Amino acid sequence: MKFLLDVAVAFGLLKVFAKVTAGQCRSNKCMVGKTAIVTGGSSGIGYETAADLASRGCKVIIADKADRAVSREALIERTGNPEVIYKHINLASFKSVREFAKEIIKTEKRLDLLINNAGISGIRNKLTEDGQLKVMQVNHLGPFLLTHLLADLIIRTPMSRIVFVSSILSFTNNLKKADMLNIPLNTTLDSMYAWKEYSNSKLCAMMAANVFSEKLQEGGVMVNSAIPGLVFSSNDPILNMPNNSPLNFIINKLLYLKIVLYGKNVYEGSQTVLYCALENDLNQVSGKVFADCMSVMQPPLAQIWDFRSRIWNKSEELVKLTESEKLK
Ligand SMILES: NC(=O)c1ccc[n+]([C@@H]2O[C@H](COP(=O)([O-])OP(=O)(O)OC[C@H]3O[C@@H](n4cnc5c(N)ncnc54)[C@H](OP(=O)(O)O)[C@@H]3O)[C@@H](O)[C@H]2O)c1
Ligand SMILES: *[C@@H]1O[C@H](CO)[C@@H](O)[C@H](O)[C@H]1NC(C)=O
Ligand SMILES: *[C@@H]1O[C@H](CO)[C@@H](O)[C@H](O)[C@H]1NC(C)=O
């Protein structure tokens, strides 16, 4: 009895600790007259991010693959801001990304914020119409192409920022060679391949964010990565992982328990993303990774210039950038 009580107290204290250390974006910035794109903005962390930006008067373009008109209307009702727009994009298709960017360039005069939030997990070794691993394309190659195509518009907008929504799982990658970007993992050799696929894609996106930060510095664009933490959303990476081995089964169950007990809700999950997008202290800060609104360490591989550069060059090749689209 005493033991059970101790356990309950310990869990309770951990919960308090989790709540106290959860970061909060305390910015009061007004966003009237500004424009933001939030990919994956029709659900989860992206939806909460879009809601916050809209409540500040920002024009918000929700870029998602399904038109969830309910979300858009709900956002307008919730924030009282009629300037919430939905535009279709499928990040798993280079053609769709190009069409989306072309239209944005045609219709928008400025782009203050690009929030690369959309992401998927748990789809194992599946290929897209472009012949790429689907997780890698949605989480890295698609946003990589999109950011290139919108770079001019973003540079033309003063004080603009780009945020890449990353994950703590970027640390558990097994990306050793740049050409592994589009080579399916060997499922016999690596029972954790579904994790690795996600981890690798998040690491690539983080490395790309670092290089974008260097290349766009002169244009005055700040580029950072935001780790939202464990968030209870429909596409929870962890809830989507396969139970393909006893070890994975146990890990998944433990993580599920952890997420139920200590997971953030989507509002809490959006705080670090918003911090990177809005905080005045970050007006001159670029190429960093934030978690709970604090600058944190990056995975060791992300800091190796040569490796980063090879991933960048390989990504340029895979998304088929023309010479003039490449960033100098
Ligand atoms: N939840 C967590 O614990 C956690 C932790 C660390 C990082 N993250 C990252 O946070 C980001 C947001 O995740 P979330 O938890 O909010 O997940 P979510 O609720 O599933 O939101 C992801 C959004 O992206 C959209 N999307 C998926 N595939 C797309 C595609 N091919 N083209 C365009 N949009 C697409 C989804 O649309 P549909 O619903 O129509 O598929 C959805 O609206 C992701 O990058 C995720 O990896 C999440
Ligand atoms: C995966 O690795 C195993 C063990 O080395 C090997 O027998 C198999 O051919 C590999 N599969 C693929 C698709 O490369
Ligand atoms: C990537 O490409 C650039 C430009 O072509 C080149 O300068 C750089 O050395 C390449 N990186 C690596 C690691 O080969």
UniProtKB/TrEMBL annotation:
Gene3D superfamilies named among the record's database cross-references: NAD(P)-binding Rossmann-like Domain
Keyword Ion transport: no
Keywords (A to Z) from UniProt: Oxidoreductase, Signal
Pfam families the UniProt entry points to: adh_short
Coiled coil regions, renumbered to chain: none
Record's signal peptide: 1-22
Superkingdom of origin organism: Eukaryota
Name the record gives this protein: Retinol dehydrogenase 13-like
Gene symbol of the encoding locus: LOC108563999
